[in-house]
Amino acid sequence: MLTILLHTLHDLLRLRPDLILENLALRQQINVLRRGNPKPALRLRDRLFWIVLRRTWAAPRIHGELMMLGLWVRESTVARYMVKRRGWPTQNWKTFLRNHLAETAAIDFLTVPTVTFRSLYVFVVLSLDRRRIVHVNVTTHPTAEWTAMQLTQAFPFDTAPRFITRDRDGICGDVVCRAIANLGSEELVIAARSPWQNGYCERVVGTLKRECLNHVIVLNENHPRRILKSYLEYYRETRPHLGLAKDTPARREVEPPELGAAQRRPMAGGLHSRYYRAAA
Questions:
Q1: Is the pLDDT of residue 89 over 90?
Q2: CATH code for the structural domain at 95-262
Q3: Contact by Cβ (8 Å): 11, 19
């Protein structure tokens, strides 16, 4: 490792034409090596060399920007004072979703037990821009054809987003993939066993359970449809959302005290309430 550092210091003091010629010679050697041994084994010191080189790779660009501003310093000086990057140089999944919230939707299923111990499946379509639940439906036998039809109903008249995020549920087969493509959207399939990559929809699924479905005894397939329809009115227009600066998905107007005394209206079958102001 010490030898490598000494050679690197020596290279920094050499003239640029000499370095260019040596670089061309090394590239030719690499090409010959690839023809003889496509996958050469890397030793530990080789890996350490590339790790160190990766951490100082942006110095030439910054050095070039400084030259364009008339600031003449050595490239080694720029490398010495650069702030070390933390994390991956490219955006991760969470950053990608945050940058594309306005043009991304997510889909997911949740199960609901009935009074006869049967399982119902609730399909949820969530628009990520304002955390809007744009479509919900219930079935006893979810199939790929049924799921594709729900997507078509959720986004009529060219209203489909650019991206649709989904998990690796076996229900989402070729039929669902074709339906997403026909909508003009691109599907984003999360990694296996990584529900956090579909975190917005997973959170909504938990909200539907905690604030609505866990408080009722479901009788049949139509029963949760009526319950969810009532709850969604509360979710869209009344419920403050922390991710929206405590606003609602439908944007709720602030009611100042001048409008009158605070009143209460039960919603979602009495599970929740809306507080508003009205003149006496």
A1: no
A2: 3.30.420.10
A3: yes
